[in-house]
Amino acid sequence: MFNLPIPIRFAFGIGVSRIKSLKNHEFEAVINEFINLRSELHLKAMITIINQTNSIFNQYLAEIRDQQVQQDSMRFRKNLERMGEIIAYEISKKLSYETKQIQTPLGIADESVPLDVPVITSVLRAGLPVHQGIMNIFDNSPNGFITTNRNHDKDGTFSINIEYISCPDIKNKVLIIADAMIASGLTMALTYRALIDKGSPKHTHIISLIASKEGLNYLRKKLPSQKVSIWLGAIDDELTAKSYIVPGLGDAGDLAFGAKTIIT
Q: At residue 41, does pLDDT exceed 50?
């Protein structure tokens, strides 16, 4: 217990005499270390990575990555949907609940049921199968949709713009934002900001099946950790100059709905 780092001892009121004996600059260093530790704990609390725990989810993840299985677009879409269902189930554990008396044919049963009815939103088009999976779990939820556009410049760089938002009221609601993948993190960060401009949600859950480390770090810097939870199927290490995740799975939208030939 007494071998704990000073920030931990400080947090729990242990080692007070040691804290008092510190010089000003030493005390400031301890405070900064404690703040950094607390911030790191908040960041860990906001991120859940599903494939770090063995479950059937990992089978679906393996299949959406497998280039042979990808040739079956219906199976690809179905696996995205299944993965959306599993993450939605995990999110359901974080909602507020109340006890209700339910009349059965034989008596009264006390059951704990959700108070929150999440608003489900997704980024088109790759997010649609994931959205369907979430909606299968929260089947009385209102729904919203976002479209974005990527503009490529001659130097190889690109910018992302929000084109269209259709969304119900999200003020003081639990908000879910789904997309199949998070590459650079720009699209998700822009989507989040565009939505909260329409109203301040009670809490936001961001869902993505595969994210790059770079994209995740970008979101950690841009999103408020106490008001946002991030749910990821897996994290991949590499992001190419064209914002493709490696090993990733390719273009989720094309694999689900067919290759794009016309983009306007």
A: no
d(CA 146, CA 123): 5
199 CB neighbour count, 10 Å cutoff: 15
- The domain that holds 74 is classified in CATH as 3.40.50.2020
Question: Using one digit for the tens of pLDDT, what is the confidence trace for 205-257?
Answer: 999 999 999 999 999 999 987 899 999 999 999 999 888 999 999 999 999 99
Count of the separate structural domains present in the chain: 1
Residues 6+ apart with CB under 8 A from 174: 95, 116, 117, 118, 119, 201, 202, 203, 204, 205
On the CB side of 107, CA atoms within 13 Å amount to: 3
Residue 204 belongs to some domain of the structure:
yes
Per-residue pLDDT tens over the stretch 133-155: 999 999 999 999 999 987 766 66
CA–CA dist 249, 171 (Å, integer): 35
Residue 119 lies in a domain: yes
- Integer CA distances (angstroms), 224 to 49, 211, 264, in order: 18, 18, 33
| pLDDT mean over 256-260 | 90
Chain segment 68-117, per-residue pLDDT in tens? 999 999 999 999 999 999 999 999 999 999 999 999 999 999 999 999 99
Host domain of residue 136: 53-257
Domain assignment of residue 111, yes or no: yes
CB-count burial class (<10 Å; 0-12, 13-18, 19+) for 32 = exposed
Its pTM stands at 0.82
Is 29 inside any structural domain? no
User: How many CA atoms lie within 13 Å of 146's alpha carbon, on the beta-carbon side?
Assistant: 26
